[in-house]
C-alpha cells in the first residue's frame, strides 16, 4: 500500500500514470491532499469513482495512529502517535493569542542524549524517524487547522529526539513543510 504523504508531485503523477489515469488526475489528488487537507478519498468528488476506489484499496494517507490526545484550557493539543513499527512519539500544537499556531514535532523515537532533566532522554534512543513520519506530524495539525480556517504558521523540531542526529531526514521534512505546506 502506497503512502501518498511520502510522494512528491512527480512520484504521484508516475503512480497514477502506472494505474492508467491521466496526469491531470495527479494534480487533482495533490490539490485535495495538500491544498484542501482532505483525509478521506471519498471527499474528493471531482475524481471518478474508479480512481477513488483504487486509492482506497492501494493507497493511504499517512501511517501515524493517534494513540492519545489531550487538550488544555488554552487550546494546546498534545498527541501521542504510534508509528508503523509500534514505537510512539509525541507532537504538540501550541496556539498563541496573536494568531500563530506552532507545531512541536519529533524527529526520533526516544533520544540518545541522555539529559538527566528530560524524560525522553532517560528513555534512551530507539530509532530515527523517516522524513515522511516527521512531515506527517505537522501535516496532521495543518489539516486540522485548515478545517477551522486557521493556518499552521510555525514548526519546531523539539519533540522527541535531537534533530541534528537525524539531519538528512529532518532536512527533507523541512523542505516538504516549505514546499507542500507553505511553511
Concise account of the structure shown:
This protein is α/β, with parallel strands linked by helices and 183 residues long.
Task: Give your account of this protein's structure.
With 183 residues, the chain is α/β, with parallel strands linked by helices. The model has no long low-confidence stretch (mean pLDDT 93). It has six helices and nine strands. The strands form three sheets. The chain has a five-stranded mixed beta sheet, with helices on one face. Strands 1-2 form a two-stranded parallel ribbon. It has helices at residues 9-18, 23-35, 49-58, 119-123, 131-147, 167-181, and strands at 2-3, 59-60, 65-71, 77-82, 88-95, 101-104, 108-110, 125-128, 154-156. The longest helix has 17 residues, at 131-147. Helix 1 crosses helix 2 and helix 5 runs parallel beside helix 6.
Largest sheet: 5 strands, mixed
The proportion of strand residues reads 15-25%
**How big is the Rg?**
17 Å
The secondary-structure element order is EHHHEEEEEEHEHEH
- Large-scale geometry: globular
By DSSP (H or I, 4+ residues per run), the number of helices equals: 6
State the low-pLDDT regions, or none.
Answer: none
The count of DSSP E runs of length 2 or more, i.e. the number of strands, is 9
Strands side by side in the biggest sheet? 3-4-5-6-9
- Our measurement of the CA-to-CA distance between the termini, rounded to an integer number of angstroms, reads 28 Å
Mean pLDDT: 93
Amino acid at each position: 500500500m502506497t503512502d501518498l504523504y511520502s510522494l512528491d508531485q512527480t512520484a504521484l503523477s508516475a503512480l497514477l500514470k502506472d494505474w492508467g489515469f491521466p496526469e491531470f488526475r495527479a494534480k487533482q489528488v495533490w490539490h485535495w491532499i495538500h491544498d484542501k487537507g482532505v483525509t478521506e478519498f471519498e471527499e474528493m468528488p471531482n475524481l471518478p469513482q474508479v480512481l477513488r476506489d483504487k486509492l482506497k484499496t492501494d493507497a493511504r494517507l499517512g501511517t501515524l495512529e493517534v494513540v492519545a490526545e489531550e487538550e488544555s484550557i488554552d487550546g494546546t493539543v498534545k498527541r501521542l502517535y504510534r508509528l508503523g513499527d509500534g514505537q510512539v512519539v509525541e507532537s504538540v500544537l501550541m496556539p498563541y493569542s496573536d494568531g500563530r499556531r506552532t507545531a512541536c514535532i519529533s524527529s526520533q523515537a526516544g533520544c540518545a542524549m541522555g539529559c538527566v532533566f528530560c524524560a525522553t532522554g532517560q528513555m534512551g534512543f530507539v530509532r530515527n524517524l523517516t522524513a515522511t513520519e516527521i512531515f506527517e506530524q505537522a501535516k496532521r495539525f495543518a489539516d486540522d487547522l485548515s478545517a477551522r480556517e486557521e493556518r499552521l504558521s510555525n514548526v519546531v523540531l523539539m519533540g522527541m529526539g535531537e534533530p541534528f542526529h537525524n539531519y538528512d531526514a529532518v532536512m527533507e521534512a523541512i523542505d516538504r513543510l516549505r514546499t507542500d505546506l507553505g511553511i
